[in-house]
Amino acid sequence: MTGRITEDHLIDSVAEALQYISYYHSPDFVQAMAAALEAEESQSARNAITQILINSRMAAIGKRPICQDTGSVNAILKVGVQAPIDWTRSPQALIDEATRRAYDFAANPLRASIVADPLGKRRNTRDNTPAMIQTELVEGDKVSVTVSAKGGGSENKTKFTVLNPSDSVADWVVETVKALGAGWCPPGIIGLGIGGSVDKAMAMAKDALNQPIDITALRARGADTPEEALRLDLYERINALGIGAQGLGGLVTVLDVKVNSFPTHAASLPVALIPNCAATRHMHFTLDGSGPARFNAPDLSAWPDLGDGGVGGRRVDLDALDDTVLGSLSPGDTLLLSGRLYTGRDAAHRRMLEELEQGKPLPVDLEGRAIYYVGPVDAVGDEVIGPAGPTTSTRMDKFTGPLLAASGLKVMIGKAERGPAAIEAIKAHGAVYLIAVGGAAYLVSKAIKSARPVAYQDLGMEAIYEIEVRDMPVTVAVDTKGASIHQSGPRQWARSR
Is pTM, for the whole model, over 0.70? Predict the structure, then answer.
């Protein structure tokens, strides 16, 4: 006979789940990524997938975040109408308490990314609350909880449309994914919610991302439903786009396509699309009154042992950059960077340009230097910095031209493609744009040998740091002539289906 489902049961379980998913990929995801590595033929994509798998294993062993973007907390609660719950506070209050505890855990602090007042000062709440919660009353006497940590890069690529009933969902999805770019950090998962209403479709798409990866089994047995037929069709067509890992071009862009559907109005065909990145993180558990959920560590044999050194490449000294060195770089080249660079994201870029407009000098000298678009996790123990992977670079595009012109900056490092205006500015100023692998944050952090904040410390994780790196792995994405691997790579690997 079980007892009551208490507030502590829920809080303890959610807090533990959030810590767990910060450093453990689920075994099905690891297996799918390992299969992608085996199937991939593009060397650039293979390098990226290799780094993702090495990073995943390192994070599992070290119990440190897979990605520096430890995500917004998403929780789906399905509360049985006969469940013996003993709560006096709302699910929002309980899960927010769990979030605070998980994100402030001293042995593995997670990055606080949530800002209040989205239309105003966008002040960081400092504890990653509030969580994003869906609650549904269902049959039964238990409470089912799914917790996920959703990174901003993939969340920002969410799309919604209402098609005509006679339109092709598959065609819309393929064209939409083709236009998403690489900011969602493929290879990953596409979640679809079809039918219902606007809010129902979005909720179904988010829920679909938490389902087990089973496309290999589905391909082997064939489709039994229209939803399964759509999954198979989209899996083949999206991978045929040639986008590949990190948008570098290759055979594998999606690991699975998940579909939830619901009845809808006769005049409507709502479709929501939400991608999940290479830092797919989720956990499901059930509370029945017997106590908090318990989670067993996965067997490390689930990970392929690819070593811990990442990939090889041409060594480049960041302290000796000149036009000859920069001009010798070509899209797709793998580099190992050593030397001094600065960090800076949206908030830092905005403030630098505001100060330039006011006639003030920049807080750091960027002449001939490199800047890394990153907001790291706090360091623990003897770490010099926590997991420190790249953020989506297109958010810096509007700052790129003015900053290059005013500062003499020569190298930018981030993830995913750059827009046309940014590429033109890069070309005009003889600069280059490099990418680090999104989803390899812990691996990248091991290349950082020192870090100190030098400006805008009030911005928290968006402050400017001076860091020293040794053999930091990157890929040339845009060269001094404006040629982009995110254009040439997918074009080379696209294939007819």
Answer: yes
